[in-house]
Amino acid sequence: MTPMSVEILLVEDNPADVELTLHAFKRNNLANRVQVVRDGAEALDFLFASGANGVRAIQEGPRVILLDLKLPKVSGLEVLRRIKQHETLRAIPVVVLTSSREEPDIAESYKLGVNSYIVKPVDFDRFTDAVRELGLYWLLLNEPPIG
Amino acid sequence: MNPAASVQGSAPFSAPHSLRVRLPALISSLIVAVLSAFLWSAYREVKRTLLDVGGERAQVAADQIAGLMAQTAQARLADLRRIASDTTIRSYMARPDDAARPMASRVLSSALGPGEQAVALWDARGSRLLVATGPAGRGAAATATLPDAIAPSRAGLSPLFPARDSFSYEIVAEIPGSDVSGAAAGVIGYVVAYRSPVSGVQTSNVITRLIGNGALVAIGNRDGSAWTNLRAPVPAPGVDLARPGIAQSIGADGPTVGALAPINRTQWALWVEFPQSVVTAPARAFLKRMLVVALLCVIGAALLASVVSARITTPLHALTKASEAIASGDYSRRVATDRLDEIGRLGVAFNAMTVQLQSVHHELDERVRQRTEELEAAVKQLEAFSYSVSHDLRAPLRAIAGFSRILIDDHLPSLAGEAAIYLRRVADGARQMGQLVDDLLAFARLGRAPVQRRPVLPGAIVQEVLHDLRDDYGERDVRLTVGDLPACLADPSLLKQVYVNLLSNAFKFSRNRSTAVIEIGCAADDAGANVYFIRDNGVGFDMRYADRLFGVFQRLHRAEEYEGTGVGLAIVQRIVTRHGGRVWADATLDGGACFSFTVGSAA
After folding, report:
1. What number of H helices and E strands is found in chain A?
2. Rounded to whole angstroms, how far apart are CA atoms B48 and B172?
3. Which residues in chain B have Cβ-Cβ distances shorter than 8 Å to A120?
4. Closest CA to A66 of A43, A90, A100, A49
5. What are the distances in angstroms from CA B176 to CA B83, B100, B122, B442?
6. A125, B6, B15, B568: least buried by Cβ within 10 Å?
7. CB pairs under 8 A between A and B
8. ipTM of the complex in this document
9. Rounded CA gap, B280 and B526, in Å?
10. B440 at the A interface (CB within 8 A)?
11. Please, are residues A102 and B387 in contact by the beta-carbon 8 Å criterion?
12. pTM of the full structure
């Protein structure tokens, strides 16, 4: 998988959640161009094209970023802040996909400019539905910014 | 809280109630009362003394004038006796013929005293032999007015008797006879001088000048007849003429004080009187002077009292101001303590109290601040904890639910026997636990979020909730009654949560009825407060367990009968309590339930 073809960047540290999310994508035929990073630092490295992922043009970013909030090293909110402060990256839609239903997290996320906030349901059917809907919306229905 | 408001809320302070006014007024009126009593008694005393003194003055004057008069009369009597002893007179009396008459007449004329009307010679038989008239009684006319007779029963001074327009009296000296040897024997006649006590205006003026202006001098017989003031006849003084001495009387011009003195060797008495108004004039002058002094005293005392009360009320005012400052939270205020009296001590005590209060207040503030910090820390920890629960507890649940579901969906054929059934149980358990965690978090969140009251219409909220719950009962036969729901002050989203939970329960526990009857309404309680209620005809419950109804995770029905986590009513109770209201339930087992709540006042 080349960075060029990345459509979805999944930032998630929990392997079970990664697997379930990927499974849900697969069921909905969206899994072929998903890039998984396991912590906030890795996400920033990927997006800002530094570190392990080598040279990468910022302009070739993913079409949507699925971001967990509770991440090792750099927190999800910090990642979100960095993305939304960047001149170009801010155009990429960010969907927070988290277990947290806490009011401060939701408020802070929207303040930082998140495009959508989804609480991961425990129930797998609903989880699958949620993943499918956000994939459909952000990848198929939503027109990406011209860049 | 505004402590200053409570201070201002007390009875308004008005000037007439101030010590600053009342103390001087009290002192002044006390002084006025004391001074009035003192002045009145002093005036009475002075007046009495002045009357005494006036009486004594009259006595002295009367005695002196009476003495003078008696002396004058006796001296004149002695003169007449010398005339009576004169040989010419005696020889004429012995042989009153025409030859001796001119001689006797000349002697008699020379005996005429100043101011006397006449001097006459009478023989022992009572015939007038010769008359010599003075300038006041010259001529035959004057002689005619003389008394026709005398009563020379005894020599000396006669009582006063009326004569012409005035009074007269006689001074009678006996003319001694002589026997052959020449020794005195018997009385052969009398020398009589006729005088008037009215010695003319001049004498009266002299006397007046002697005893003072305004005085009255009167002379008359002791039997009350023939009284004159030396110028004209006057009535006898209204006192007991038999008792000499000081007496008070009512004169023509008001009350008088005077003294009566007898004139020795006569039947006359002398009366000297002063009008009381003249005598007591100094008392009135004294009173006037003292009134001025008293007025000055009162003014001075009032000024002094107002200064003194200002000395008292000014620090009191300062104390009041300082107290008000403290009441409004300013502990920096101190009052002056430079005085050594009680007020100074009060100031010291007040300052000490302020310092104490300040330190206590400070300590209390400090303690509250500490406790608040501790509480805030505890709340933060709780929040961190619930965040962890929210995030970390759900992740493994999601894994359990998710993977067991994948197994069921994708690998069912390769599962042996009852494996699929157990797997479903695993998935159900995980899902249920996820629901529990969600409900628990929702319940915990309720304790933190602020209640934002607003006027709301419960009717609109109920319609909204019924719309949301349509999926739960839409296909059932439900007879729904929504009564009149008056507006109230509540947090709309929280009130909606209450109706969601209570209506969900009503639908849930009535679902095995062929026709569910659910009534939503409002009634007034004994105190007139609105009681909102939701009544159903469902399975109800045993009232014995009613106390467990609103506890977290408390359930009165088995999970396989009626699903649920047991958090819904706990949430309802928490919301209602946070609104200051009350929630309770009435039910019978298998006879339906009625849940009621109040919203509480906005205070």
Report:
1. 5, 5
2. 45
3. 394, 398
4. A43
5. 11, 18, 12, 162
6. B15
7. 69
8. 0.78
9. 88
10. no
11. yes
12. 0.46
